[in-house]
From TrEMBL:
It is an enzyme of class 2 (transferase). InterPro entries: P-loop_NTPase, Shikimate/glucono_kinase, Shikimate_kinase/TSH1, Shikimate_kinase_CS. ATP binds at G10, A11, G12, K13, T14, T15, R116. Mg(2+) binds at T14. It catalyses: shikimate + ATP = 3-phosphoshikimate + ADP + H(+). It comes from Secundilactobacillus malefermentans. Pfam families: SKI (PF01202). It is found in: Cytoplasm. This is Shikimate kinase. Binds 1 Mg(2+) ion per subunit. GO terms for biological process: amino acid biosynthetic process; aromatic amino acid family biosynthetic process; chorismate biosynthetic process. It comes from the Bacteria.
Length: 173
């Protein structure tokens, strides 16, 4: 069964996607990687040249083209900012898994990372973090807390939850 990972920067969407992909025998599609390939340049350079708005346009294009792929889709943390993206996520065939992580843990994981243009200032990050919580909840079918858990533990937890979702879907048929 495919799945889509959402959550704030540093929640582990890329890492967990990599771990789960061989477990469910599906390729990983990391939207940030697809954006980088499409633009032919790294994310900070995209932000510098076309701004966040230009980045968001590319993000919607790659989301639209992959959303119903048989894959583990790792989104970028800001994917839920655009209404159209939230509609795409809510209408997706695959369950959407929200990797929920406290702000303290996020800071410990990604502070000083120079590959994330929106993670350079703690006050601005905290504002984004607070704005986005309800949007992740809005699109999520499954919520998994990631604080103080290893990627392997989180991956197993997601696999178990997917098994229950699959059973529920079958029993409703
Ligand atoms: N559960 C976890 N426990 C500890 N470190 C983690 C965990 N998940 C991710 N990380 C680390 O946090 C950083 C950000 O992870 P990443 O997968 O890139 O997050 P995202 O794609 O959600 O922004 C990486 O250095 C990664 O190794
Ligand atoms: O939260 C965001 O707005 C962003 C998150 C990043 O992905 P990760 O969540 O994988 O870091 C990347 O898409 C870009 O830097 C913008
Ligand atoms: Mg990522």
């Amino acid at each position: 069964m495919s799945l889509i990972l959402v959550g704030f920067m540093g929640a582990g969407k890329t890492t967990i996607g990599q771990q789960i992909s061989p477990l469910i025998h599906l390729p990983q599609q990391d939207l940030d990687d697809l954006i980088i390939k499409k633009a032919g340049k790294p994310i900070p350079q995209i932000f510098d040249e076309v701004g966040e708005a230009g980045f968001r346009q590319l993000e919607t294009q790659v989301l639209e083209s992959t959303i119903d792929d048989a894959a583990v889709i790792s989104t970028g943390g800001g994917v839920i900012m655009q209404t159209i993206n939230r509609h795409l996520l809510q209408g997706a065939l695959a369950p959407v898994v929200y990797l929920k992580t406290s702000f303290e843990t996020i800071l410990a994981r990604i502070q000083n990372d120079d590959n994330r243009p929106l993670a350079t200032n703690i006050t601005a990050m905290a504002r984004l973090f607070n704005q986005r919580q309800s949007l992740y909840e809005e699109v999520a079918d499954i919520v998994v807390d990631t604080d103080a858990k290893s990627p392997a533990f989180i991956s197993t937890e997601i696999m178990n939850q997917l098994a229950s979702v699959s059973e529920l879907r079958h029993s409703a048929m």
